[in-house]
Write the structure tokens for this entry.
Amino acid sequence: MTEFGFDTLQIHAGARPDPATGARQVPIYQTTAYVFRDADHAAALFNLQEVGYIYSRLTNPTVAALGERLAALEGGVGAICTSSGHAAQIMALYPLMGPGKNIVSSTRLYGGTITQFTQVFKRFGWSTNFVDTDDLAAVEAAIDENTRAIFCETIANPGGYVTDIPALAKIADKHGIPLVVDNTTATPYLAKPIEMGATLVVHSTTKYLTGNGTVTGGAIIDSGKFNWSNGKFPSLSEPEPAYHGLKFHETFGALAYTFFGIAIGLRDLGMTMNPQAAHYTLMGIETLSLRMDKHVANAQKVAAWLEKHPAVEAVTYPGLDSSPYKERAQRLLPKGAGALFTVALKGGYEACVKLVDSLELFSHVANLGDARSLVIHSASTTHRQLTPEQQKAAGAAPNLVRLSIGIENADDIIADLDQALAKASA
Ligand SMILES: *Cc1c(COP(=O)(O)O)cnc(C)c1O
């Protein structure tokens, strides 16, 4: 289906009339298990000699339709859908890692991801070398013989920073390790990390892909381009004891990572997306390009207005001339720099809290990428568990408020900010 344009793929990829009923929309296959034709059929499925449905912890037709759609939109060969964005991150790294292994990661990340990479990893014997990804020499210096991936976000949460994915991809290639890109805040409509050289793309489908704040979910999209037999990834290249010594890369080639993610990752870790969630996300994706164009147009207008407001010290939107990432955003995100950014208030922490409490149209929530405009004071919420240094490095300093601009009328969004800023600076 890849010969079609994005608007066509977002509606049709992965979906076909239901073979049993002719249903045009993807049915919600609300079932746990699937009847085997006979004992031989069951054995072939369990041996991975035949592809088919066994049990919904591994695969489900509704979830598979979403995986196929996401793979088409990102330009990958396959996808693994997960129960949340955080599950997708763990699941993405699980086939690559082992005790004593590390990843090199950007410091500019979603707050929960920083916590996962520092606290949770320790319990697996994994570790993270955090670096400023604008310093390419520092990225190279952080890679050692135990590094198994480089990790970054396209537009780094809480907004304003655009990662130079092609530059990081070059370094990853040179060292024989995959580049894993969290493309949640850009979506495949605004950015295609695989075309820029990424090996794996991860998503919190909770955000723009679903687009209406209804369900949590995640996904990993596999470019199918990495050589897993370079000696660093035994899970994918060496005999797998849980499948009678099957070698995933040798057997499945470009689909090795996807098959491993489902046959081992989902089967044994169980971070599975449910078919109801897949349904909501499939619905959301049908209008992704329309929504993203509106998100971007609104964000551009609101950011430009905010920048001129006397109570505002700075606005980090990469679509503004004042942004140090304007040129990079135009080069890597030609359709727009997303709809997530931070505003620094002259009144500091107190003014930020007052602003958040005074906004009426905006919802004060720990979410982003909703049709609704959202606001949060990162330092006192999502990035609260971090040290002041980590908060600053992550772009979540105490005088910053994060805005996720929705698809309402831009004038109404601006009017709400206007009345709240008047109260915050009174
Ligand atoms: C929300 C988010 C996550 C975590 O996703 P969940 O679905 O909430 O688990 C990871 N990365 C980014 C960039 C996010 O915005």
Observations:
- The domain at 6-284 is CATH 3.40.640.10 (Aspartate Aminotransferase; domain 2).
- The longest helix spans residues 288-307.
- The pocket of pyridoxal-5'-phosphate is lined by residues 84-86, 110, 112-113, 153, 157, 182, 184-185, 204, 206-207, 216, 218, 368 (CB under 6 Å).
